[in-house]
Amino acid sequence: MFGNQIKTAALLGLLSGLLVLGGYYLVGNEQGLYLGLAFAAFSSFSSWYYSDQAALMAYRAQPIARQEAPELYDMVASLSQKAGIPMPKLFVVPTKSPNAFATGRDPDHASVAVTQGIMELLSREELEGVLAHELTHVKNRDTLTQAVAGTIAGAITFAGRILTFGALYGPVTRDDRRGGNALGSLFLIVLAPIAAALIQFAISRTREYSADLGSAEITGNPLALASALEKL
Fold it and tell me: Is 208 a known active-site residue?
């Protein structure tokens, strides 16, 4: 578990480094380094503070009280206690597509959402396995990690598109003393977005494996999650 956290931190650092380097090549001088660093910090803070609201709004998730779904509420409360985290806010997404996700900047500000479809598709044990998986994401703060990774990767891709536009319709910068060279432009336009996507994928896979293990530890029934994933 600790090794996965070190790996994730290293991958996030590499992803941020790509954004800083992209800022350098985009501007063409040292100011670009500061711009990239500032944007990495800003995007990380924005992801930390607003990721839960954005995710819930995107899925049109509706808050749900205990009296509306007592079995679901008690299930999450019990699993949260076993995981050693506070009870998250519960949301239901009005869609038949089977899905569940966790969001929030830390365990004290976490939310878990399930769709109507997944509650109808899975048995109680299978749903417990999925929910324990999502609660492990909350416990490990994976919700924040993946939000930050996605934001930074998107910023790198956006910077590459800006540079592509500049190369087609005019120079992005007139300072060609350092930075802004052809090799740097090629890196930012082509290689950096691909590298960012691969790093983001590696972060996601690392956190997913840890969440699978956490689900088995919380429920004591690893076959339940396996059965749920088979249905999904």
Answer: no
In CATH terms, the superfamily for domain 55-141+211-231 is Metalloproteases ("zincins"), catalytic domain (3.30.2010.10)
Residue 94 gets the label, from left (phi > 0), alpha (psi -120 to 50) or beta, of beta
Which of the residues 134, 208, 217, 230 is marked catalytic?
134
> pLDDT tens digit string along 143-180?
777 766 766 676 666 666 666 555 444 444 444 444 44
Residue 63 in 3-state DSSP?
A: strand
**Residue with the two structure tokens 């350092």:** 178
The answer to pTM > 0.70 is no
Domain residue limits, the chain: 2-51+148-189, 55-141+211-231
Of the chain, the end-to-end C-alpha distance in Å amounts to 26
